[in-house]
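Long-time lurker. I teach an intro course on protein structure, and each term I like to show students one example going from raw sequence to a predicted 3D structure in C-alpha cell notation. This year I'd like something fresh instead of my usual example. Would anyone be willing to generate the C-alpha cells for the chain below so I can use it in lecture? Attribution to the forum is fine with me.
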Amino acid sequence: MKNKKFMVLLVLSFLFLLVVGSMYSYSLYISKTEQAIEMRVANWDILVNDSMVTDGGEETKTFTINDMTLTGAGVHVEEGLFAPGVSGSFTLAIDPYDTEVSFVYDLTVDSSNIKNDRITITEVSKVDKYGNLIDEGSLENVDSEKGIYEDTVFYDKNTYLKPKEDRCIYIRITISWLNDENNNVADTEVGMNGDQPKLDIPIKVNFRQYVG
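-- Reply from a regular --
Happy to contribute to a lecture. Here you go:
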C-alpha cells in the first residue's frame, strides 16, 4: 500500500515538474517572440523647403516655381519681372533631418505650361549653401523628354548633428528666356496672358529608399 502511495506521489511530482517546465518554456518563447516584434524601424523624415514630404507614408510633393531670383534684366526691363533676356533661378532645400537610410530622389520639372520654345530649363544643379556649384555639378538627367533628374544621398549617421544649413542638399533650377527678335510674336503672347501675366512651373519631388 505504501509503495502504491509512493508511486502516485512520484507520478504527481513528475507531472507537476513537467507542467512548470512547459509553462517556463512557453513564457520564454513568448518573451522572445515579443522582443523580435518590437524591433525599431529606421526613421524616414525628409523636408523640402521646410515642408514635410515623407510624413505618413507620402513620398511625393509638388512645388510650383512662381517666385524666382532674376538676373540679366539690366535697365531695359522692370525690376522683378521675367522677360526676354532674363534668367530666373529657384532653389529647393532637401533636409534629411531625421532619416536613417540612404535614399534616391528625383525631380520632375514640368515645362508643359511653357508655350514659348525660347523659355527653357538651362540648369538643374547641386549647389552649396552659398549658391556655388559643388563637385559633381548637374544632376543626372534620366529622362530629358519628361524633365526628370535623379540623385542618390547616402546615409550619414552624423547628419542630425549638423546645423540645418550644412545638412541640407540644395538644388538650383534655372530658367532662361532667350531674347530672339524673330520670336517677338510668341514673346508677346506670354506677356499678354491675363491681367497679371505669370509663368508657373510645377516641380515634383519624389523619394524612395536606396537599396543598392
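Some talking points for your students: The longest strand covers residues 87-99. The first helix runs from residue 2 to 37.
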